[in-house]
Amino acid sequence: MRWWWLLVAARVAGQACCRSGTTCATCADIAPLCEFGAANATECTSVGYVWCEGVDVPEPSGECCDFVDPDGLCGTFVAEGGYCTYSQKCCEEDCGLSWYKNEGTPTYAPTAAPIAAPTITPMPTATFAPTRLAPVEKWGALRVDGTRIASNATGAPVQLAGVSLYWSNFGWEGEDFYTAGTIASLAQWPGLSVVRAAMGVEDESGYLDLPDYNKRLVEIVVEAAIENGIYVIIDWHSHEAENYPEAAKNFFAEMATAYGGYPNVIFEIYNEPEPLENRTWEVIKAHCEDVLAVIRPISDNLAIVGTRRWGQYPNESAADPVDDVNVAYSVHFYAGWEGHDDIKDAVHEAVELGAPIFASEWGQGCPHIACDLDRNNTESWIGIMDDYQISWVNWVLNDKSDVIDDTLSIFLPGVDPVGPWDDDDADYTDAGKYTKSLIARYAT
Ligand SMILES: *[C@@H]1O[C@H](CO)[C@@H](O)[C@H](O)[C@H]1NC(C)=O
Ligand SMILES: *[C@@H]1O[C@H](CO)[C@@H](O)[C@H](O)[C@H]1NC(C)=O
Ligand SMILES: *[C@@H]1O[C@H](CO)[C@@H](O)[C@H](O)[C@H]1NC(C)=O
Ligand SMILES: *[C@@H]1O[C@H](CO)[C@@H](O)[C@H](O)[C@H]1NC(C)=O
Ligand SMILES: *[C@@H]1O[C@H](CO)[C@@H](O)[C@H](O)[C@H]1NC(C)=O
């Protein structure tokens, strides 16, 4: 690789200042050129390091980038061989630029083993225990039929029930659950028919920062869902999606091309539009129609469109629907949060207006603050969703126990993300046990 030659060329071959290790032969840490001590023997020994001759100078761990484009990729790498390129410290601390581990991958990308590429089988292969038929084998592709979702092939109404993964963002502690094993274990839950891959977008280390990483996690989940015969929601987990239309269109074009032919796949185009005075339903709708214009030539699959105020106003969307025949409108609610009770009215209104609703995210407690789980209100919501056959996805399949998510995580901290989760009391939180039991009501 070019780094090796540049570094060697930039100093006398084989000479280096060793910062750790007892002998030059076992030097574990050679000072990069721009750091104090590296220049020559005098400087090196003055700071207590060992000056070595005839050692292998390691290649830098990455590259230095002076322009990061909106997709989080390095637009321009610093000219090869320059001072800023010698090490991460030179690049970041001395030059104030960004260090990339590999071309296009920022420094906080995982440095552990690369994510293994899952093998994808051409058509769903059910790996279920023979207690039931895999949902996708049973219903196939989904289409909107009035206010309901139906099997495109048979017209039978379909009400999906399942769970959402946590944000995919690197370092947010949800990513451990984006594994094929997790999805295979989840598919064993009686009644479970859908999983949601919540791909972070604009927040730190989401898709805009780390497109390849986040997309890879989604791919793993989608492919595992296909293999296990369950539906999977590809969720653009953004609060301001219309700010990044090109990124969204590129992503969904790729997803539709790779997976849009599989009946399993549901596209969720805009997670939760955060309220802003100028983020009207018209703005949200126009963005979703732009993205659908990219998806539709490739795939007819069901799409979910986010509704205003974090998914709370499907009634408003129902009055001015998106120009597409296979779209459902999201409703998001948290049963422990008193302020969310009005959302029930919005759902009733939306259904009266003839709109299909999809509860692509809901929780038993509160969003982003600790509160008690409200089982009574949860049952009230489940009753409404069952009356209208609204498909639903519970938040969240994770084991975080911080103040934000302690009432919502399905698993106790430290659970094996891959499963199997055999022991209800040892593996599941109270919320998790209850969610699992709710989903079991849909077992056929
Ligand atoms: C060692 O390098 C430092 C920093 O570049 C320089 O100031 C000093 O003169 C050098 N000493 C010798 C002996 O080359
Ligand atoms: C909407 O308002 C926000 C500030 O609240 C502003 O940053 C943004 O540019 C506005 N967007 C448009 C399209 O006017
Ligand atoms: C439903 O079936 C019709 C007729 O076969 C087909 O044209 C359409 O693309 C299908 N829709 C979906 C969502 O698969
Ligand atoms: C939608 O429902 C909410 C909650 O009941 C209500 O506040 C809002 O005014 C409704 N919007 C429309 C356009 O009907
Ligand atoms: C339970 O929920 C129902 C429906 O929302 C409500 O009418 C009732 O008052 C609730 N009961 C308790 C004890 O909170």
Automatic annotation (TrEMBL):
One of its GO terms (molecular function) is hydrolase activity, hydrolyzing O-glycosyl compounds. Residues 152-401 form the Glycoside hydrolase family domain. This is Glycoside hydrolase family 5 domain-containing protein. Belongs to the glycosyl hydrolase 5 (cellulase A) family. Keywords: Glycosidase, Hydrolase, Signal. Pfam families: Cellulase. InterPro entries: GH, Glyco_hydro_5. The lineage of its organism: Eukaryota, Sar, Stramenopiles, Ochrophyta, Pelagophyceae. GO terms for biological process: polysaccharide catabolic process. Residues 1-18 form the signal peptide. It comes from Chrysophaeum taylorii. Coiled coil: none annotated. It comes from the Eukaryota. Gene3D superfamilies: Glycosidases (3.20.20.80).
